[in-house]
Amino acid sequence: MVAPQPRRVTRPAPGRSRHPTSGRRLAALVVVRVVLVAVLAALLLGADRGEPGLGRPTVPAEASWPVRAAFYYPWYPETEHWATRYAPTLGKYDSSDPHVLATHVAQARYAGLDAFIASYWGPDTPTAQRLPLLLDVAGRQGFRIAAYYEPESQPTPPSQAFLNQDFDSLYRLSAEPAWLKVEGKPVLFVYNIGREASCQAVKRLLSASKSRFYLNLKAFAGYRNCSAQPDAWHQYVPARRYDQQVSDSATVSPGFFKFDETVPRLPRDLERFKADLHRQVASGARWQLITTFNEWGEGTSVEPSLQWQSPSGYGTYLEAMRSAYT
Could you tell me the pTM of the whole model? Predict the structure, then answer.
């Protein structure tokens, strides 16, 4: 959008006097108009960058297939005390900062993503406290958020009663307009590993869901043979460049270099990443996933970094995604 230009002021003819008060008023009007134009331009620029507080555009009731989403981690600075081998361009930020969240959402939109799958570790955790904030910020930009339910990865998983109560709480929160919805249901991803990587765990998760959520569970050996099945499956293996779970999901990783390891499990290779993105798009999978947007401890981020800068400021990985997705 081109900002309107200030109205041209007619200069008096040479030798003709002008009343000084009228001249000052006219000058003041010009200054006011210029200031208003500048403010409007700043607001438009801020809206494009995803600055908070600029209104709430309408979010479509449901996403359409394929859904392109990245796993997202709102757990800084406490997680691993910001140990990482890379340097985000935003610096070592706080995930409670609305400006940081708004910037991340704007970056994701630039890359062609539809949603973040935000790590959630249960009530009374920092990730639970930040989830409503993330939903609010995303809603202002027409972006979507789903939770990644991670308590199922603990050595002692939640009891059925706790699971039921926590799912009830998340379902109430899913009434937020920015919560990702497909096929008439709010989406909930689950990171079920260890003893919860079993058909029995699938049953208890479905029981807690009560058919309210669209459940997308992490795949495990023999998952297709379970008598009870969720709505979809995904795999979370960021040390693997590409993974596909039939037509359910196709997942791409940019690399994996953990902060406390001396050798990367998956070296970064931008050309390989681009090829895998094109393979993902061609797969036709309903869920086209990125591991990850900002898991800095494991070095799997596509968020802009000093190590992969670009003239646009979005970084080479987000630019590659934009090229493949849009």
Answer: 0.84
Q: Residue 171 and residue 324: Cα distance in Å, rounded?
A: 33
For the cut 60, the answer to whether the pLDDT of residue 22 exceeds it is no
- The SS3 assignment for 97 reads coil
Beta strands in 150-248 (DSSP E): 181-182, 185-190, 214-218, 232-234, 242-245
pLDDT at position 23 over 50: no
Looking at the predicted structure, is the pLDDT value of residue 52 above 70? no
Domain spanning 67-325, CATH class:
alpha beta
The answer to whether residues 227 and 244 touch, using CB atoms and an 8 Å cutoff, is no
Going by C-beta distance under 8 Å and a sequence separation of 6 or more, which residues neighbour residue 143? Answer: 59, 105, 108, 109, 114, 115, 116, 178
Query: Which contiguous run of DSSP H or E holds residue 199?
Result: helix 199-209
Task: Report the percent of the chain where pLDDT is more than 70.
Answer: 82
Q: Break the chain into its structural domains and give their ranges.
A: 20-49, 67-325
Least confident of 21-35, 50-64, 169-183, 278-292: 21-35
Express the helix, strand and coil content of the chain in percent, nearest 5 each: 40, 15, 45
Residues contacting residue 76 through CB under 8 Å, at least 6 positions apart: 82, 92, 93, 94, 95, 296
**Tokens coding 170:** 């998340």
* Residue that has been written with the tokens 């209104």 in this structure: 55
pLDDT classification of 57: cutoffs 50, 70, 90: low
Cα 303 from Cα 310, distance rounded (Å)? 12
